[in-house]
Design goal:
The protein is α/β, with parallel strands linked by helices. Helix content is 35%, strand content 26%. The protein starts with 24 loop residues before the first strand and ends with a strand. The structure holds zinc ion (ZN). Zinc ion is lined by residues 5, 7-8, 10, 18, 20, 22. Keywords: Methyltransferase, Transferase.
Length: 231
């Protein structure tokens, strides 16, 4: 596995420079691919940062009050454990307690979360990048997850396209998203100021991107999707 430029897809060398001259940075144990994308990076952070601050507590409360979040993670651990594993929107990296991997990448746009992740899981490669243009080589991952993140993006289907691109043939992915469903999802979407999509939106995005849907589970307003990259 090696990094590629999130703008033009050319390889990134040891000095974190792409063939077309884009420069990236390694700081505080983080590979930072948003460092020179001021407009894009900042706009994205501005939009998402306030949501991040509010997300974990209410989410934890909601999920644990109806279902066992720990059980979802344990199940993800057995489904996703593999050699090369990528978690998109990893936050403080909780999933790395459950997923066993040799080459583990945690990706997020928040430097704060990635710093916490590095302290807890020093073996995980911390990458700061946008979920809709991953600095990850095509067909290099055995498994990819994205929990509680995709519904917050302007264009979730672009992120699903990227997940498919970086997966090896037969590689696995698991996605947990908030979908338009009931009163709870309407409340959460109002609170987080996001526009929710119907479950069919995600199912179509998966099927249109060479991914086979293996399993769908509904947890209240949350939808858990397991899929596999076509060979
Ligand atoms: Zn470049």
């Amino acid at each position: 596995m090696r990094f590629i430029c999130p703008y033009d897809g050319t390889p990134v060398n040891e000095n974190l420079e792409c063939e077309k001259g884009h420069k990236f940075m390694y700081h505080d144990g983080i590979y930072d691919f948003l460092v020179n994308s001021k407009v894009k990076g900042d706009a994205l952070l501005e939009r998402i940062a306030p949501i991040y601050d509010k997300i974990w507590a209410p989410l934890g409360f909601f999920l644990t009050s109806f279902y066992s979040y720990d059980r979802i993670f344990k199940d993800a651990g057995s489904f996703l454990s593999s050699q090369n594993f990528l978690d998109i929107g990893t936050g403080p990296g909780t999933i790395f307690k459950y997923v066993k991997c040799e080459y583990c990448i945690g990706l997020d746009i928040s430097t704060k979360f990635l710093s916490i992740l590095k302290k807890k899981f020093s073996h995980v490669i911390a990458v700061r990048a946008d979920a809709t243009s991953l600095p990850i080589e095509s067909a290099s991952m055995d498994s990819v997850s994205s929990f509680l993140v995709l519904h917050m993006l302007n264009n979730p289907s672009l992120a699903i396209k990227e997940i498919s691109r970086v997966l090896k043939p037969n590689g696995k992915c698991e996605i947990l998203v908030l979908v338009k469903s009931n009163v709870i999802s309407r409340l959460l979407s109002k609170w987080w100021k996001i526009e929710l999509r119907h479950r069919d939106y995600y199912i179509s995005a998966i099927e249109e991107n060479k991914l086979t849907l293996l399993e769908i589970k509904k947890y209240g307003p949350w939808l858990l999707l397991k899929c596999k990259k076509q060979a």
